[in-house]
Amino acid sequence: MSDGEQPRAGKVVPESRLRENGKKAEGGDGGNANEMDRRALFRVGVTAAMAVGSVALGLGLRTRDGHGKSKSLPKLKDHRVDKIQGAVEMAIVRGPDAAANVRRAVEAMGGMGRYVKRGERVVIKPNIGWNRLPEQAANTNPDVVAEVVKLVAAAGASKIWVTDVSVNTPEQCFARSGIEKAAKAAGAIVVRPDGPAFREVDVQGKLLRTADILFPFVDADRVINVPVVKQHGLSGATMAMKNWYGMLGGQRVKLHQDIHLSIVDLASMIKPTLTIMDATRILLANGPTGGSLADVKQMDTIAVSSDEVALDAFGASLLGLSPTSLGFIVEGMKAGLGTPEWRNLKTEELGG
Amino acid sequence: MRIILFAVLAVIPPTLIGTLVLKGHRAPPAEHASASARPSGQEADATLRALFEPPPTGTKIKEKITLYDEKGLFDFIDGAAPIFIDRHFRKLAAAEIATAEGSDLDCAVYDMATPENAQSIFDKEKSVSAKAVDGWPEAIAGPMSFVFHHTRYYAKLTAFDAKAEAALPAVARSLKEKMK
After folding, report:
1. What's the number of domains chain B is made of?
2. What's the pLDDT score for residue A17?
3. Architecture of the CATH domain A90-351
4. Which of chain B's termini has less CB crowding within 10 Å, N or C?
């Protein structure tokens, strides 16, 4: 029940009618006067109880859902670009050179200039969640990240951030993954998830109403998602949509309680410009942490699209999973985020 | 009729409020049977920490030993946490270790409360392509990784270079000797 329903209580037992009833009782049947007073008193009491109860309930619910904030918070922008009729909607490139695969795939999608304009500020979001080497395939391949930075720079971006909220110690993750070094060398500003890096945002999701988000996602004109393909113990797989967990501060436990809906909720909040999926090496088991090279498979594949559901469906096929077996893909389709039928998109496949 | 309607409407808000309040004070779900055999918290924490004190032979702790409980486990292994919690995980001790040659390895020892739980998580996470370890059926070795279970503990060691990988079996045996 919301605050807006309080007037309804007043409507049921208007105060003016209570007074009228009282007067009628006084001037009419004197034997019923006390009873009428009691009734009137009872009605006033009931009305008051309902009003107090409704307000208290409303306040309780507001607190529970995090609605209690009265201050105005920034919202996330829509970072997408307009679709071009007849353009390639998904590019898949296979080959031994990860950087070359990125270049070819982005070129097949119309080139980075279609997505990033001169002077724009761009945030690139790889998976840098784990204290793992590139060979262990728990993080996005650093060569892939570096190539994306170079393409964005060549398109004329005025500022390029590379950031993620690591699960393990950020210093270790950013260093061990090789991403910090590679991204900096390519010209990006690397933002570690320290306290001042977060900003509270009005996300208006189903599960999250507000969230602490890394500031580049609030400030950027364009957002490029660069996930890695991995098996995941809880959600079955982590790829494009799940990668958005890494823009949030401190709410992982809460979000894991309903993992598939949480993934879709997050994916609905942010509308990325482009997703460049890294399947150079994929983690087939013991994800998301990995560690053993026995769980890693070399795929030498990059897939690019603006449809995250389609990319996740493609990634699922690399992991040997049926896309419809993954709840977040089904829910993502229902939410209108894309299609798992990636073969129905205009797709260009190169190499192999 | 009106009074009945009023009474019904009046009961709804307090009932909802009561439900919300009670929800906040509801007792936690009953623990699983196997949890009854759990060691006491402080003693078990001290025993777990003692696996690293002193550090495994020929190594040193790089920074610190961190203990994670059920809630904190998500902060260490994210979405892999539920399969541990389902198996009555008690606590994790994690540390990054440096070998004498200066190579790094990641060491995570999970206190699973009972040997059965430790066996269960080992079986669950066992990589199909990992290799068996001669003379140690409760251990497997994958490239850059060594995993074993012993008593109520499940240990995962991850190497970050070839030298650390070579040191994994010795570190694992050193840990195992302390797992009474």
Report:
1. 1
2. 35
3. 3-Layer(aba) Sandwich (3.40)
4. N
